[in-house]
Design brief:
This protein is of the alpha+beta class. The chain contains 2 helices and 8 strands. Helix content is about 15%, strand content about 40%. Strands 1, 2, 3, 4, 5, 6, 7 and 8 form an 8-stranded antiparallel beta sheet that branches.
Amino acid sequence: MNKNRLFIVLIILGIVSCILSCTRKSNLFIVKSESYYSDYNVNNSKVSICCYLTIFNDTNSEETIKLKAIFPNDVNKLIETDTLYAKDDNGNDMIFKLQAKTKKSFDVVLLENMQESTKRATGNFRKL
C-alpha cells in the first residue's frame, strides 16, 4: 500500500517537473495552478499516466512541441526507462501546437512499458 502512495507522489512530482522538448529554445511554461495528475493505469504491460496540463506560450510565434516526463526513481521498479512520452491512442508521440502569447490545456497520457519484475510481483494496481 505504501509503495502505491509513494508512486503517486513521485508521479505528481514528475508531472510538475514535466520537461518540454522543443525544436528550439523558447519561453514555454507549464501553468502549475491549472495542471494536475489525474490517474494511472497498468494494462497489457503498459503503464499510462494521465494528467491535465496547461501550457503558456510566451513567444511571438506559434510553437510545436512534444511532451515528456522523467521519473528516475521508478526505473526498474514499475517502468523500464526513466522517460515517459505523451502518446496518442495509436501509441505515436503527440504533437502539440500553441499559438503565440496564448495558453492552452491538454489531456495528456504518458506511456511506458511496465518493468518485467513488477508484472510478476504485483499483478494489478488499484487506485488509492
